[in-house]
Amino acid sequence: MDPLASAHAAALWAGLNVVLLLVLSVLVTRQRRRHRVEIGDGGVPALQQAIRAFGNAAEYVPAALAGLAILALVGAPSLLIHLIGLVFFVGRVVHAVGLSRSTQATWLRAAGALATWVSYVAIAAALLFYAIP
Predict the structure, then answer these.
(1) CA-CA to 80 of 20 to 30 Å: which in 23, 42, 66, 91?
(2) What does the alpha-carbon distance between residue 66 and residue 92 come to, in Å, rounded to a whole number?
(3) Do the Cβ atoms of 71 and 77 come closer than 8 Å?
(4) Residues 6 or more apart from 68 whose CB is under 8 A from it?
(5) Taking the model in full, what pTM does it have?
(6) CB-based burial of residue 105 (10 Å sphere; 0-12 exposed, 13-18 middle, 19+ buried)?
(7) Contacts (Cβ under 8 Å, ≥6 apart) of 3
(8) Per-residue pLDDT for the chain (133 aa), expressed as one digit of tens each?
(9) Buried b (16+ CB within 10 A) or exposed e, 55-64
(10) Fold of 5-131
(11) Torsion of CA 77, 88, 118, 109, to 10 degrees
(12) Which residues contact 122 (CB under 8 A, 6 or more apart)?
């Protein structure tokens, strides 16, 4: 097994999640410019949704990326990192789309949240497994 394969896998998912955060940030900026709101949300529902979509991703992404990076450091198989990374990333994208389109509970938001939580559980379980020598 290539010792760098796990690091490359973690790097892929870190890069994609950073791109997601950048895209969500740009969407906030577009709404701010469109509605001429410099700070806060100005009471504009579309801006509120964009801010929440970015904020929600910013709340969940760092811990997941830290977990994937640590899994790479301890030599977890790259396939495991790819599986968890894929489920997490797809979950974050689906959740962001759902949150950007509606303030109501939607199947997109629910599916995204579920995928995120499943990924968190998988990361935690794998980290605990690799923590025991």
Answers:
(1) 23
(2) 16
(3) no
(4) 9, 10, 13, 14, 81, 84, 85, 123
(5) 0.93
(6) exposed
(7) 75
(8) 676 999 999 999 999 999 999 999 999 999 999 999 888 889 889 999 999 999 999 999 999 999 999 999 999 999 999 999 999 999 999 999 998 887 788 899 999 999 999 999 999 999 999 999 8
(9) ebbeebbeeb
(10) Four Helix Bundle (Hemerythrin (Met), subunit A) (1.20.120)
(11) -170
(12) 83, 84, 87
Q: Which pLDDT belongs to residue 1?
A: 61
Give the per-residue pLDDT at 133: 81
Side-chain-facing half-sphere of 66: CA atoms under 13 Å = 7
Reading the block at residue 20, the tokens are 């997601």
Contacts of 82-86 with CB under 8 Å at 24 or more apart are 82/9, 82/12, 82/13, 83/122, 84/119, 84/122, 84/123, 84/126, 85/9, 85/10, 85/12, 85/13, 85/16, 86/13
**Number of residues in the chain:** 133
